[in-house]
Amino acid sequence: MPPHPAAKSATSAAALGFPETAVATRPRMAGETAGQAGSKDALARLNAAIDDLKALAIQPLLQDAVAALQGDNFTTGGELAIKALELDEKNGFGWYLLAIARERAGDFASSVRCYESALSLLPDQAEIANDMGRLAYRMGMKETAEKLFSHYLSRHPQSHEGANNLACALRDQGRFADAIEVLRPAIAAHPEHPLLWNTLGTVVGEEGDPAGSMTFFDEALRHDPVFAKARYNRGNARLVLGDPDGALDDVQAAMTANLAEDERLMMLLARSTIRIARGEVGEGWDDYEARLHPKFADTTHFMIEAPQWTPGSDLAGKTLLLMGEQGLGDEVMFANVIPDLIRALGPDGRLLIAVEPRLIPLFQRSFPTAEVGAHSTWSVDGHTVRGAPFVGDHARLDLWAPMASVLRQFRRTVDAYPAGAGFLAPDPARVAYWRAQLPAGPTVGLLWKSLLATGARHRFVSPFEQWKPVLATPGVTFVNLQYGDCAAELEAARRELGVEIWQPPGIDLKQDLDEVAALCGALDLVIGPSNATSCLAGASGAPLWLLSTPGAWPMLGTDRYPWYPQARVFLPPTLGQWEPAMKAMARALAEWSQGGTKA
Predict the structure, then answer these.
(1) Is the pLDDT of residue 1 over 80?
(2) What is the pTM of this model?
(3) Is 291 strand, coil or helix?
(4) In what order do the strands lie in the sheet with 383-387?
(5) CATH of segment(s) 428-593
(6) Cβ contacts of residue 531 below 8 Å, gap of 6+?
C-alpha cells in the first residue's frame, strides 16, 4: 500500500521519515537516461493538469509548489506539497510533487515511496512512471527501470526520450541487441535528435566495438556540435583505442560547455584517467579527487570522524587511518604507497589500514607496524557508505585518507614509483609448501578473465579461445589461478589442445588471497590480464607478464606497469585485436621455457 500518513495532522517531513537536511544529489552519467525529475516541460504539463482542480482548496498550494520546483527551489516545493497533502492525503499530484522535490534533494528512499503513492493514485499519468524509472535506474535497479520505461513508452510510443531511457536500461543489463532494436525505430522517426545517436554509440562501444561507436558519436556531434556528452563519450572511446591525446582534446572541449556540477565532476574524473594515461601523473591524481565530491554520481561517503589528510600535511608522529577504496585490485595496487606513508609517520607515528577482509592477513604481515582491519560498505538510500568499525573510538585518529588520495603527494611522477619488485610479503612457509607441491619443470600461473568483466568491462579481457597459441607452448606446466567458475575453459583446454591445466588442491582462488599470494610466489611466472590476482602477484614480487590494452591508465604513459616494475607488458595494436599480442606472448614464452630469456 502507498505510504499514506495515519492522519492529516501527522503529514509532515518528520512523520514521512524525511531527513532534516538533503543528501547530495546522485547525478546521471553521460549517455545515460534522459530528462530530469520535474523538468520544465513535465512541470508545465503537470500545472495544466492541476488547472482542472479549480474546485479543490489545495489547488493554489499545488500550483505554488510547481512554481517553486520550476525555480529549482525543491525545499519550498516539498514543503508546499506536504501542506497540500495535509489537506488531502489522497491527492496524487501532491505525492508526485513531493516525490520530485525529494529526488531533487537526493533523498531517494523517500522519493521512491512518494512516486509509488502518486502512481497508485494517478495510474494514467505515464510521466510518473518515467520519472520513477529514472530514479530506479540511478539506484541501480535496472530491471525495475526497464519495466517503468516500457510502461511510459507504451503510452508515448513517439517519445525519443522514452526510447532512449529504455535502451539505457537494456544496455546496462548486457542486452545490447534489444537496446539497438529499441533505438532503431526511434532514430528512424527522429534522426535529428543527437541524444539517440549518442546512446547508440554507448551501446556499440560497450558491446565491444569502440571504433564503431565513434561513428555514432560523430553523428550526434554533426547534429549538435556542442553536445558535451557525445564529445565526452567520443573522448573515452579514443582513450581505449590508444589515442590519449585525442581523448584529452575531446574531454577538455566537453568541459567548456555550460554543465551541471555533477556532469562537470564526471568529466573531471574522465580527464584524470586520460592525464594519467598520458604520463601527466600528478595532475591526473589531482583530478581524481573528483570521485570524492558529494555531487559525483558514484561517490563513496566515508564515515570517518577525523580531519581528512591533504597534500603537505605533517605526518610525523601522527595517527593516520588509510581507507581502501575502489575494487580489490585497486586496493592492492594503491598499497604501493604504504611504505612511503610509514616512513613519513616515523617511529612515533601510527598507521591504521582498512582493507577488504580477505586482504587482512597479507597486509598485516607486509606492514607489521600498522594496525590492519576490515572496512565495511553499505548502500543507504542509493548511496554508498563505507566505514572502518575496527577503529573504535575515532578520537584516537589525527587524520584519515582514502588510499588513492595520498598518491597526489607520493606518486606525482613516474620516477616516484619504486624500482624494486614487491611491496607485499607472502607467507614464506606457504611459498615453500607450494614449491614442494608444484609439478616439476617450468610452472606458469594462468589467468584469463575478471569476474567484473561484464557490460563495458568485458571489452578489456580477451576470450579464452584466444589463449590457444600460449597454451600450445611445449615444456610448460600451466597452473590455474583463475578464480570463479572456469570448469568449461579447463575442459576445453584438455579436449581441444591436450593441455592439462594443473588445479592447485585445497585452495579457494577467490577467497584465500593470502594463500594465492604464496602460490604466486612459488611459481616461475604468472601471466594474464590485469585483475585482482595478477595485482596480487605483481605486488608480491612474482615474475609477471600482463596482457594489457592500449591507453591503459596504470601504465602511466609508459610501455610498462610502474606499479610492478618486474612486469612485462604485451599489447594488442588496438582494443580487441588480441591475436598479435597472443602470438608475441607465445613466442616469448617458448624462448623463456627453453632458458633463452628471463621472465
Answers:
(1) no
(2) 0.79
(3) helix
(4) 300-302, 383-387, 376-380
(5) 3.40.50.2000
(6) 329, 447, 449, 450, 452, 461
